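Case study 2.
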Amino acid sequence: MSYGGKGTMATKEELRGIVEQLSDEESLIVLKFARWLLEHEDALTEQEMALLRRGEEQFERDEYVWWRDVKRTEV
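Prediction:
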């Protein structure tokens, strides 16, 4: 699975550095997502990649709403 433009080692080093800065709760979320990625070998389609990039751009512009602010029931 390839996504970014950096080399693999640089990307993994950056990821390690970011993970070290996360809270325990945030680390658990990242761990669950990483496990999900390993279990699902399907590559993203071009459309899915475009949607992912669009979402990242929106997030960088602070154009997002927290899930807890929009959910209707306790989960």
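The CA atoms of residues 64 and 70 lie 11 Å apart.
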